[in-house]
């Protein structure tokens, strides 16, 4: 008789939270909310009838029994993933790419059709995660992160420069004009939990470090912050590379030409030991071509009002 298995989504959430030591990091890795990770862990605890974490204010610590449980299920999940990759599809034509969720939604996905047009036989399998490169469990052919940084066993290839500046919807700007940074006092400033100091850094650079806005709205993912700006909820600190389409089509405007807040470039990290290095190199070259197109265009899609 086959033994009963716990809920697999709950098991995956527990394994990620236990391995990374954080519900927030697990949420980023699995592209779900912090609350979803917490619910899955509680579901697994109910199924096991035993606690898995000791909860101390804002941090969690594995119980002794949970550490032993993790040591068993971690390798088991690795074997499932390995078997799936080996037998579930033809790996020879599949390119596994891992990228941050906001970058994937706002830059990579809208351009993938151009890659597929020139390489119709390549199956791109895109996974999103904000987890540090060295903590990723599954193998990937291309990993996109900020940089350039040095990681053992990886080659870093910068392909897209980045800056940040305030953006908002045209309708919001019509209601509450922004002629100088001091006008932001009348606005709601949109913050992202993952990048909490963006506004402080920009306001200091703009000579308005003491500014107090009318209101503040904090969202847990950067892509939600940008969508809130599109929907007119406030002013966001937006990444120029990821807002090109919204700015070009008038869904967002940049009320100030500067100052531009510097940011890390996007880089393609290629494992030196992966078998599909030629295919990964093709994808890396395409990323560089797309990034060079923007650079050659002078980043002119950034519209100012």
UniProtKB/TrEMBL annotation:
Record-linked Pfam families: HTH_1, LysR_substrate
Keywords: DNA-binding, Transcription, Transcription regulation
GO biological process: DNA-templated transcription
GO molecular function: DNA-binding transcription factor activity; sequence-specific DNA binding
HTH lysR-type domain location: 6-63
InterPro entries assigned: LysR-type_TF_proteobact-type, LysR_HTH_N, LysR_subst-bd, WH-like_DNA-bd_sf, WH_DNA-bd_sf
Domain of life: Bacteria
Gene3D superfamilies registered for this protein in UniProt: Periplasmic binding protein-like II, Winged helix-like DNA-binding domain superfamily/Winged helix DNA-binding domain
Family stated for the protein in its record: Belongs to the LysR transcriptional regulatory family.
NCBIfam families (alphabetical): PRK11139.1
Protein name, as recorded: Transcriptional regulator
The species this protein was found in: Skermanella stibiiresistens SB22
Lineage: Bacteria, Pseudomonadati, Pseudomonadota, Alphaproteobacteria, Rhodospirillales
């Amino acid at each position: 008789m086959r033994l009963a298995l716990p809920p697999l989504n709950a098991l995956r959430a527990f394994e990620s939270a236990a391995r990374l030591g954080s519900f927030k990091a697990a949420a980023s890795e699995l592209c779900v909310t912090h609350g979803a990770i917490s619910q899955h862990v509680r579901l697994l605890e109910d199924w096991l009838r035993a606690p898995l974490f000791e909860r101390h204010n804002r941090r969690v610590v594995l119980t002794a029994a949970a550490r032993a449980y993790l040591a068993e299920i971690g390798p088991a999940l690795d074997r499932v993933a390995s078997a799936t990759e080996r037998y579930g599809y033809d790996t020879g034509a599949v390119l596994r790419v891992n990228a941050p969720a906001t970058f994937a939604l706002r830059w990579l996905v809208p351009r993938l059709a151009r890659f597929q047009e020139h390489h119709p036989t390549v199956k791109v399998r895109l996974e999103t995660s904000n987890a540090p490169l060295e903590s990723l469990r599954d193998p990937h052919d291309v990993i996109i992160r900020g940089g350039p940084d040095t990681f053992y066993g990886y080659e870093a290839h910068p392909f897209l420069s980045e800056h940040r500046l305030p953006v908002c919807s045209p309708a919001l700007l019509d209601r509450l004009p922004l002629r100088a940074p001091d006008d932001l006092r009348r606005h709601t400033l949109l913050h992202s939990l993952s990048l909490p100091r963006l506004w402080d850094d920009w306001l200091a650079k703009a000579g308005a470090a003491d500014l107090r806005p009318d209101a503040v709205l904090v969202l847990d993912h950067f892509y939600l912050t940008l969508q809130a700006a599109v929907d007119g909820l406030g002013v966001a600190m937006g990444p120029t590379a990821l807002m090109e389409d919204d700015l070009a089509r008038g869904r967002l405007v940049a009320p100030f030409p500067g100052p531009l807040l510097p940011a890390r470039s996007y880089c393609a990290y290629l494992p030196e030991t992966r078998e599909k290095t030629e295919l990964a190199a093709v994808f890396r070259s395409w990323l560089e071509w797309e990034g060079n197109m923007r650079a050659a265009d002078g980043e002119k899609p950034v519209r100012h009002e």
